Amino acid sequence: MSTVRFDKPAKTIDEQLALLRERGMVIDDADSARRDLAHLNYYRLTAYWLPFESSHAPHAFKQGTRFEDALNLYLFDRNLRLLVLDAIARTEISLRTQWAYQLAHRHGPHAYLDRDLAHRVDWWQHNLEHLREEVDRSDEIFVKHYRDKYDKPDLPPVWAVCEVMSLGTLSRWYTSLKPKKTRSAIASTYGLDERVLQAFIRHLTYIRNVCAHHGRLWNREFTVTMQLPRSKPPGLVASFHDGGNRRIYNTLVMLVWMLGRIHPGNSWKTRLLDLIRRHGIDPVDMGFPDDYAARAIWQPAQAAVP
């Protein structure tokens, strides 16, 4: 274990600019750079100028590196997060809907209160307590209406509680759901195997949390990955990159697929590719294979194929 004491002093914005110049970064507009550093933590930006370094120790930039180049990567990543959050929101609402619909029609309006539908009673109990907390925190009018009108059960039907549950809670409920026919009915909406969907929801929860905390998506290796389908649907399977499962590429492939099932003909994929082109980003840094443009999911009509 290291015993070196941290003794680096905080630097003013002007000192930060001077350090960047000392390391070889070109700063054309100092006032603009000062404004950016006043609102974008210097430490946050360090991740975005790593590709421009000729050596990491000492930190020296390649000749001609401009402050705007690193800022461009940051702005791209910020816009990518917003785009991914948009896709996650639409996917989450769809998943909630299918979970509630299949449970209600196959097992009853309050099916989630039935412990026999869970793989393990302790999982079910934990999930129910967490869901009850989410309902109690909610100020939605339909929760108050239900409790004013009904005594039992004390929680609203599944199609109401799904509207107040988080994506993480939904992930845990789907994971603990025991009847395979019900799990498969939910997954088949998206043309997926139920185990693949389970892993994807868990992964999506992780990605959503990264985005919500303004974490980096570009050029990042993720610790929570997802299970890739191996045989079907073929257009989706062929579009994944086995060698890049810790990068954002496979997540983007799955989001394109999901949105194609939820809203065929949507523009999300086009917006994503336009964003990459507009900022001049090398998609290889995000785990894209060299031949990604030729893969099925990226073809114009692929996302809408059932």
Protein architecture, described:
The chain is mainly α. It contains 13 helices and two strands, in the order αααββαααααααααα. A hairpin with a 2-residue loop joins β1 (53-56) and β2. The radius of gyration is 23 Å and the shape is globular. Residues 302-306 have low confidence and may be disordered.
Topology:
Layout: H1 13-22, H2 30-39, H3 42-49, E1 53-56, E2 59-61, H4 67-107, H5 121-137, H6 141-149, H7 158-161, H8 167-176, H9 180-188, H10 194-212, H11 234-237, H12 249-262, H13 268-278
Anisotropy-based shape = globular
What are the segments in which pLDDT stays under 50 over at least 5 consecutive residues?
302-306
Bin the strand percentage.
under 5%
Mean model confidence by pLDDT: 93
- Kindly report the spatial arrangement of strands forming the biggest sheet: 1-2
Order of helix and strand elements from N to C terminus: HHHEEHHHHHHHHHH
Major beta-sheet overview: 2 strands, antiparallel
Number of strands: 2
Q: In DSSP terms, counting alpha (H) and pi (I) runs of 4 or more, how many helices?
A: 13
Rg? 23 Å
Distance between the termini: 54 Å
- Look at the helices and sheets and give the structural class: mainly alpha
Percent of residues in helices = 40-55%
